[in-house]
Amino acid sequence: MTATGSPAGARLRLRFALRKARDAAGLTQQQVGESLHWSLSKVQRIEAGESTISLTDLAAVIRLFDLRDPAQIDQMTADARLARRRGVWNQSEYRSQLTSALLQIGQFEHEATAVRVFQPAVFPGLLQERGYANAVIGAVVDHMPADMQNARLDFRMQRQRDFFSRPDGMPLYFVILDEALPERIQGDKATMARQLGHVLDVAQRPEIRIRFLPKHEAIYLLLGAFTVYALAGDEDAAVYKEYSVTDDLIQDPDLVKIYRHRFEQMWNLCLSEQASMDLISARYATMISELSRG
Prior knowledge:
alpha/beta; 434 Repressor (Amino-terminal Domain); Endonuclease, Chain A; six-stranded mixed beta sheet; 12 helices
């Protein structure tokens, strides 16, 4: 069997499969380490997706867990091979300038079955027009060298091209934005107008669903921006958290469920998709009118 998708996706699937198999075998991480003469930290890193597992080590785990289903073993082996593969995300210009979490979400976007984004401050990266993206990156990471900022911008644009032109079709893309967002100008008025027009254009795709969280629900803004990537199923999911100067990739199933639950709570409180598009359209028309008057 040949696994399809990205190394990061394969690593995520494999860590869940290993954890499930260990639970079914009734073993603790400590017992696995002792049986295989591994350190506890090695077992923990593999199950956390922080380290890949060699085929030799995987074979030892399969024997220890007494796994006998050929299809299950083939899938785990294929994922172990794919998890160690290098791709476009490992190109030197990206690897040296971007965080590990950013490189991994670039891979998740190649195989996610659904992506759920909460972004209260700016339009999310996959919906950013290049000028707007440049303004956002320049404002947030102005402490970084120019080559690092340029690498982030190029990578963001590459992610967009790959996401919207996936051979298997782009996944469902659910977006929650703060109702006040269209009023916030990034760059200058012309840049913001282009961004609003860009969102109106791409939102014509049936896979993209955008809603605004009403201003009176501002308590949810305390959650900060996050993105939930669902892969083979809701169990195989990860959360990307982006802060002002750092980022993080959350793969703990319990924490992922909390973020998914919070997203659904907010989604049900949001303006309808039509009302949200009307809000963007009205703001776009206002800005175009203002720009035409000079």
